[in-house]
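Sanity check

After download, print the first record. It should look like this:
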Amino acid sequence: MFFVAGIGIAVFIEFLLISKKNKSASDQILTVWMFVILVHLFLMYLFVTGDIYSVPHLLGIEQPLPLLHGVFLYLYVASLTKLLPNRRGLLVLHFVPAMAIYIYLAAFIVLPADQKIQVYRSQGAGHELFNALRSYAIALSGICYVTWSAVLLKKHRNAIRDQFSDLDKVNLQWLQILTFGLGGIWFLVIFFRSEILTMTGVVVFVFLIGFFGVRQADIFAPSQLPADGTERKKKYPKSGLTEEASAELHQELKRVMAEESLYRKTDLSINDLSSKLGVHPNYLSQIINQKEGMNFYDFVNTYRIEEFKRLVATPKGQQFTLLSLAYDCGFSSKSSFNRYFKKATGQTPSEYATTLTRSPANPT
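Expected C-alpha cells:
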C-alpha cells in the first residue's frame, strides 16, 4: 500500500505540474522528470509483485531509466539556479547513455514474450557484459550528477548573497536535501541492491518533490537596466568604474540607505537598489564588494542590525517585542534575525537587550 500510495501521489503531482499555469523552464523539466519517475516506479512495482510477467511487452523498458534521474536532477538544479550552459543544444548529450541502451535493447524488445521472460528469469543469461556495463554506468551516473548538482547549489548559495537581502525564499536548501536524497537512493542501489529499499527511497523522494517542487517559483528575475539608467551606463563603461565615479556612487549609496531606510524592505534586492540609483546591478555589486568589503546580503543586513540596536535602546522601542522590532527593521523571520544578529554581535538579541537594561544609562 505504501508503494501504491507513492504511485498515486506521483500521478497527482504530475497532474498539478501539467495544469500549472505560466510554467517556468524548471517546471517543464520537473514535469518530464516526474513522468519518468512515475513510469519507473510503476514498473518497479510490477517487478516486486511479479505482475510484470503478465505484461511481458513492458520488459526492458525499465533498463535505461536509472540513467535519466541524475540527468534530470542536474537539469532541474541548473535551471532553478540559472546555471544552464548557454549552448543548450549540447544538453542532449546527457541522454546519450540512455539512448544507447535502448538501441542495444531494440532486438530484445521485439523478441517473443516467452523468450523475454526466460531471459529475465535466468538473471540476464547471455547478456552478462551488458548487465555489468549498465551497473557501472548507473553507479557512475549517480555519483557524477549528484556531485555536479551539489557544486551548482554551492555556487548558487554564493551568488544569491550578492543579489538578495533575504535568503529564506531563495536559498533552495530543500533542493540540497533532494539532491542528497537522490544520492541516498543510489547508495541503496549500489551497495544493497534491494528492490524494496530502493522503492521505499523513491517513494520518499516523490513525497519531497511533491511538497517542495510544485510550489517553487522562479528565483532570479532578469537583470535589466532601469529606464533612467542610460546616462549612468555611459558613465560606467564595460571596462569598469573609474575611481572618481566609484567614490561618487558609493557616497550616493550610503546616502540613500541612510535617508530612505531602504533596508526596511524585506525582499530588497540588488536590482531594486540599482534601479533606485539608476545604475547597472553589476556596478553596484562591485562598489559594495570593493568599498564595503562585503556582499549585498551582509551590506543590507548590517544596516538592519544597526537599526535594531538603535530602536531597542529607545524607550519607545522597549515597549515592543524584539521580534516586532526585527520585522520593522526588514528581517523576514525570527530564525534569520537571530542567526544574523548572533553572527554580527556574538550575542543573541535577548542577551543584547538584557545588557542594555543593566547598563548605567538604563538602570533597572
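If your output differs, re-run the checksum step. Summary of this record's structure: Residues 128-160 form the longest helix (33 residues).
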